[in-house]
Amino acid sequence: MLFYIALLISFSKSCEIKKTQLYYTYDSESDSLTGHYQRSTYDDQTGETTIHEWKENIDGPILKPPTTTTTTTTTTTTTEPKIYNCPDDWLTFSRDNYKWCMKIVLTEEITKNSAQEACEKLGANLTGFQSSSERTQVASKIKLMVATNKDALNNYISQTGGKFWVGAERKKSCAIANSCGDETVNAYEWTDGKTSGTDGMKWQSGQPDFYKEGQKCVYISSSKYQSSRHGLLDDDACAGTDHVDGYICGKSAGSL
Ligand SMILES: *[C@@H]1O[C@H](CO)[C@@H](O)[C@H](O)[C@H]1NC(C)=O
C-alpha cells in the first residue's frame, strides 16, 4: 500500500505562488519512504506551474507516518457438548452420553396402551431400564410413593402386589411360545427408542411365561411381602388393568 505525503511551503507574491514541495511515497510493505523535492512557481491567473528544481530519490525519513499496528483478534469458539437436564419432577439417570429422565405416575386401572399415550403427552414413552441400578432405584421410589396412595398401597401389601407398566414388548419374531431360546433375554425388547440390551431386564422367577401366548406387555412389580416380586419384571396382557397402579415414562433429557 502506498501513501503520499506532501510538505508544502508556499510564498505569495502578486499573482505568483512559489512552492517548495517535498513529496514522499511511503511503502507500507517495505516500511520505507522515498521522495522527491520540487521547487515551483504557480501562476493563479494562468493556472500554470513552472518547475525550477526537481530532485528524485530524496532520502527518508523526514516524515514517517506513524506505525500502524494491525491487531488481529482471533476468537476461538469451542463447542462444548451441551448437557441437558431432566425436568425438576423427573428422576435423573446418567447414561453413557446423555441423561435419561423417568417419571413414575400413580394411577388406577390403566391399560398399557393408555399408559403409553399418557407418556407421549409428556413427550416421553413408557420407559425401559438400561441397568439393574435404574430398575432397583425405580423400585425404591415406587415403594415410597405407594405408601402415600391408598389404592396403590392396598396392592402393595396384597399377596400379588401392584403393577407399573414399563416400555417393553414381546418381539414379533417370538410370537410363538418358546420359539426364541432363553425367553429372559431373547423374547422381549425395550420400546422407548433409547434403552438397549437386557441388563435392566430382570424377571420374577418363572417369568416371562407368555401365558396362553397372550402376555406381550411388561410391568415392574411393587410388592411388600414378596421380595421375589418387588422391583422385578413380569409379562402380562397389554389390555389388563387388574392390580395396575401406574406406569413409568422415560425420555432423554436431550430431546426436551
Ligand atoms: C418413543 O419411542 C420410539 C420408538 O419406539 C422412538 O422412535 C421415539 O423417538 C420415542 N420418543 C421419545 C420422545 O423418546
Tell me what you see in this structure.
This protein is mainly beta. It has two domains: 58 residues; 165 residues, Mannose-Binding Protein A, subunit A (Mannose-Binding Protein A, Chain A, Roll). It contains four helices and twelve strands. The strands form two sheets. Strands 5, 6, 7, 8, 9, 10, 11 and 12 form an eight-stranded mixed sheet that branches. It has a four-stranded antiparallel sheet with strand order 1-2-3-4, with no helix packed on it. The longest helix has 15 residues. It is rod-shaped. 2-acetamido-2-deoxy-beta-D-glucopyranose binds next to loops. The site of 2-acetamido-2-deoxy-beta-D-glucopyranose (NAG) has 8 residues, from loops.
- Helix fraction, binned, reads 10-25%
CATH-assigned homologous superfamily of the largest domain: Mannose-Binding Protein A, subunit A
| Number of spatially distinct domains | 2
End-to-end distance: 55 Å
Global shape: rod-shaped
What's the gyration radius in Å? 43 Å
The unique ligands bound to this protein are: 2-acetamido-2-deoxy-beta-D-glucopyranose
Mean pLDDT: 85
Q: What's the helix count?
A: 4
CATH topology type of the largest domain: Mannose-Binding Protein A, Chain A
Outline the low-pLDDT stretches: none
InterPro entries: C-type_lectin-like (IPR001304), C-type_lectin-like/link_sf (IPR016186), CTDL_fold (IPR016187)
Keywords: Signal
Organism: Caenorhabditis angaria
Protein name: C-type lectin domain-containing protein
